[in-house]
Amino acid sequence: MKKTLSLILALVLALGCCAAMASAEGDRMTISVMGIDWGYGPSSNRSMEQYWEDMFDVDLDIQWVNYNDYNEKANAMIIAGATPDVIQINKTDGAYYYPLLTKAIDNGQFVDLTPYLYDGGLIEENAVFKGWPQSMWNQATYKGGIYILPRSKAEVAQQSGITVRRDLMKKYGFEEEPTTMDELKTWLIDLSNAATEGEGEKIYALDFYGGFMNNARTTAFAVAFTGQMDWGYDENGNYEYICFDPNYINFLDWMKDLYDAGVIDPEFALSNSETSKWKGGRSVAFLTAWYNWNQSADRVTNRIFDSVCPDDYEAWCLLPVQGDNGIVISANSSDIDSCIAISSACDEEKIQKIFQVFCATEEQYPGYNNILSYGVEGLHFYFDENGTRQKTDEQKTANTEGYVGAWNQIFLKVDADQITSKFMRAGASRASDEAIQRATDIKAALVSYLDETGLAFSNQNLISETYNASWATLTSDVDTMATMYVMGEITADDWNSFVQGIVESSEYQAILAEYAASAN
Description:
about 10% strand, single chain, D-Maltodextrin-Binding Protein, domain 2, 4-stranded mixed β-sheet, alpha+beta, 2 domains, globular, 20 helices
């Protein structure tokens, strides 16, 4: 408690002093800001910051806080009611609207941005905003109001890629790709066995370790059997957690068949990340972001395998595979890649200025997109005789100190396009035409499925006090029981009885009721 109170006092004093100093610098309006430093160590009042200030005719009193300390410091400010004018909101437990923030919103500490976005027509007029579907704004809504301002739309269904070793597929005659979960299981087992025998070392089917709850390496597989994300609806329209869906055991059976065949690490529950490491050449496949196999056409200039691996290792990604109740897909917990909130201590004039600065676009400020990505020519890079961006040592220092390329987490930026940015990069790092087409086909299939089904987290932005207080304890044994089932140490009846005990508990039923009440 003493540590927290001391931190709050120090932050409040520091914020006040910095704001006073900034105000004394001139007649420009001062906007205080706090954002996340992801380990670069940016310094205040450097060239990039000064360039933005001149562009927008404003003084930015910005504090970049290291990501290790950010949540603690941001929450201390929220508790003290002393947040800066603009504060980056970090996702907590998978949600931007986490309990401490929503309590502050309920207490009136942050501005409801809805009228500024809709009444003035900004959503229809802003070049970035007008491209977003309504679902994006729904994700930014809490109790009918928009209190967080998204910075861009993330790439779709990110953790949905079944990435595979194509060189092994070709070498052992497995180029016919599986299209169903049953086919995928057989394909993985048989290719793992063939590769193990042919390579003279164990090649696992999947790079998999850890538990089953909220595990990005398994969730998309589970969705193919259940047809829902972590939270969905049962047949009666009630909220339901994915592990408690009656079809979830079919996913566990699928994993159990791999375990029984000896093609996943027998000690996967120990969270050993090295035994079956795909990038180290130790597995046939693994579930990851569908765009992270962006290997250059020559397989060398853009390596995605470990440096000790041969250059002839080839990455590939399967098209989404069909399961009993869906495809292998994992909808994003949020399509908002980062966001900010505005303190209700700001007056109307400052709020309008914040919207001008933090919702800028290329159309309003020509060159804005390139500056946001690369900085300013002459200050942060130069073009060589081939037209390629280069940096002097001095410019490299200016980039680091100015946090060039990272302001896009608080400023507005264009939506993510991983096909262009990863597969179609100019020069030798460009992927093959075949790989670009496959990435395009995968994205199209994922987008089509999301459009047709509306797959999403059904509890998004819903509040349950019982969930906040009891969920970790209530589900503490789920991973253990799932692991025991996959390893054959408990029966299906044991699993079903265990699930029934949780589903019928007063805590779980309270969570469902509170989610339903929050939705209404």
